[in-house]
Specification:
about 230 residues, alpha+beta, six-stranded mixed sheet, five-stranded mixed sheet, globular, binds manganese (II) ion
Amino acid sequence: MKLAIEAPPLHTLTVAGRDERFPVNRVFCVGRNYAAHAREMGKDPDRDPPFFFMKPANAVVDATQPTSVPYPPKTINYHHEIELVVAIGRGGRDIGVASALDHVYGYAVGMDMTRRDLQLEARDKGRPWEFGKSFSRSAPIGPLHRVQEVGHLPSAAITLTVNGQPRQSSDVSKLIWSVAECVAYLSEYETLEPGDIVMTGTPEGVNAVVAGDVMLGAVAGLGEIEVRVAR
Ligand code: MN
């Protein structure tokens, strides 16, 4: 096939312990999926159906090694959100909750970096969240650990520190909507494809970072990632 312009780069993630890489298709993100975080964002936590927003594939940054992300333009309130990341290995639609985890390839530690001022302005005006959430290099993600190696994670500590100071600390067992429920629900609206990524939401403690800050994010069983905020 002859392309009219140079093909855009493929964005991939490291697979722990393998020499093959995971190609990233779409990045779906769940909003307000921990009660204490919903409260800190000024919303009542509830069991309303989950809601999703997306990031482009070029949001993904391989954080297998200590890495950095640029401080993005047009914000003065750039926030960290530590999240459990789910990689879809097998596509499907109308997937039931009981079989949803069969579609998971693996898990990783990730950060949903957010221009909070732009997100809240958009939210309060009833506009899309794109400028707050969906920008380049806004999703550093560590190596993917395959389900056959680590199993599933019904509970696991999830933490983030900034310059060594604790900021976020919770457990993935506190997800309002579990991984299986998120995958099943999403698949009713969109046929899932291999390579899709689901970022499952962040616990309480989100806060701002500035250039020079070093974030350490971890999920027990999946290791940790080190991400520096560049200028
Ligand atoms: Mn998030």
